[in-house]
Predict the structure.
Amino acid sequence: MPIKLTPLPRSRSFVGRLVCVAVALTFSGLAFSGPAKLTVQADKPGLKIDPIFYGLMTEEINYSYDGGLYGELIRNRIFQDRPIVPRGPRPTATNPPAGQPGATPVPAAPAAPPPAEPTPPANPAVAKNPHLINWWLVTSDGAAGEIDIDTTDPVNKTALKNSLRLDIRSVNAGQRVGVANDGYWGIPVRPNTTYRASFYARASREFKGPLTVSIEGLDGQIYVSGRVGKLTPAWKKYTLKLKTRQVRSTAEARFVLSASSPGSVWFCLVSLFPPTYKNRENGNRIDIMEKLAAMKPSFLRFPGGNYLEGRDFESRFNWIATIGPLEERPGHMSPWNYRSSDGVGLLEFLNWCEDLDMEPIVGVYAGLHLDQGRTTITGEALKPFVQEALEEIEYITGDKSTKWGALRAKHGHPAPFKLRYVEIGNEDFLNNGKESYAGRFSMFYDAIKAKYPNIQVISSLRSWDHYDHTRPPDLLDDHFYVSLPTALSNAHYYDKYDRSAEQIFVGEWATNNPRGGPTGHMAFALGDAAWLTGLERNADVIVMNAYAPLFCNVNPGGMQWSINLIGYDALGSFGSPAYWVQQMFSNNRGDVVLTSKLDPLPTLTAEQLPKATVTPGGRPGGPGARPPTVPPGPFDAVYATASRENASGDIILKLVNIQGAAQTLQIGIEGVAKIAKEAKGEVLSAELDGMNSVAEPAKVAPKPVRVTNAGTSFTHDLPAYSVTVLRLKTR
Ligand code: AHR
């Protein structure tokens, strides 16, 4: 049970307070080493914090785009998907990645049995043809029909090779036969909402139409419907708007194409979009984009992650196959065991950057796959892919006079995008990538620097690999997936970093052990916040950083990687406590770090550390999980960083208390003429297992803080298990 410390009278001396609090804590049974004092040097020139410091990392994992950010509601719209066959963890999945600081591998704990997941009703159509996954035959009582996949006479022979054939055998007046799509765990129905449906269709001569297009409840209720009057024997694209009335919101719904005339109808590229963020065609879901916008991220690292590499050559992110009209995008199998529609392709990633004012950090395919190095492409054979990377950069940055810039303009974006950073591959320290990385990296580095000398080239090897690149990377990409104790201890990891070595992009990090469900709890968020204070304090070394993974569809079967920043189902979304930490830190950025010192600094032994439980909602452990390891203590009980925002003159304090009791902090700001008495901020505080969900999206969320006693010397109580951001006014 956390104890609440009552603030002591202001007149009492600091030493007096120290004695009193120590006595209180001794009697409470909690072994604190006493109150903490934070001294900030406001007049010492600080380290510059790069304006790009906070950003996002993303890839297609956990139904991040399909069934997530991407607005498309129809699953398996071009009939290329198949039922998902669980393939176990990725060949190289380790958590944390092998050899990561502070994470000594220990034998895996015996896995607990997975929680029972509802078994969906078997679809007889899928037994006939696996490409009918998510499509159902719909027949009125007494009517008869069949569905199948047809490969003859396709819309095109590249991407739209398969079509769905609906044979309406017998149907009387008032009856119907049709086909239904159940979407990504349901089609979300909202009141007064305009949906845009589109599909290619052709019909046999005997089919007389019309075709009814509807969104229906699983209970048969029609939420909205429209009609297409006449189909022809030739393929034609049909588009219609469906506007719901004052219906109730539900995801217990499906999309239905049906008719009451005998004959055959073929369909392909069946699509249904709700309103999208900034009304972009082929755009993104509004609620999730708004959550990202609220984080004010500065960059987007894409397209992965393992999604860049693929399990093999075919499943790599082949950017060229992801651009242009959807009719030309076949999609591809992702390393995360499901097929990607590639509806979010290279240009959509860039549009996403534009919508949120983020810089793209583009990972280019570099010949490595997730197969222990069996098919790594090197030397002469890699040259075409170096060329592809140059073309990708030209597609992003070239003007209309260039071949690839002109293509981008044709695809709807005449203005070039700004690109400062390109990363060569992903996690090339795995899959025996190190053996060939020096050669592969040099090829990309030389080609990119020759054509684009201002682009910064990032190596996917980590600082602790101490790898001889033969060409000097502009940045190294360090990844950390850690337990709470390791996150706390790693808050000091870069304090000891060799300042003459390369600067760092922490391209993936999270406190995520012991892993369980889709999103984390307050205990993990405390680890994240403590770790971030360390990154900010080392802003001379750390250029930018991103939490990973970003997204997870929380429906059963939606998660491939446990502990993600933002969760959602078809209708709703929520930020985890870690999301709020990100938002608090990113929204309160300083331009320079101010030297700060905690002295006295309360400490905790390993035994006294807060214990992070396995988060519910998934397989305990999850893919690639290892039991957390505990670095030797003592651990700081309080973490702090101070910075100054030049425009406002504000001094920003970020304070993390990982103890189950409030911590009185004596704060001294030196080298500044005045600090206004009134200060504002936010505090996130909850029990260690406090979590958010679609049903309770803001159970753990920051609350405003108003300080009325601020000054060059003042006390402030940090609540138990809390993250606080304070903005002190110097003007
Ligand atoms: O973030 C999940 C995975 O972790 C990424 O795909 C990969 O880069 C890392 O191993």
User: Anything to note?
Assistant: Residues 182 and 254 are 5 Å apart (CA to CA). Residues 59, 97, 304-306, 426-427, 508, 548-549, 561 surround alpha-L-arabinofuranose (CB under 6 Å). The chain is about 20% helix and 25% strand. The longest strand covers residues 263-273.
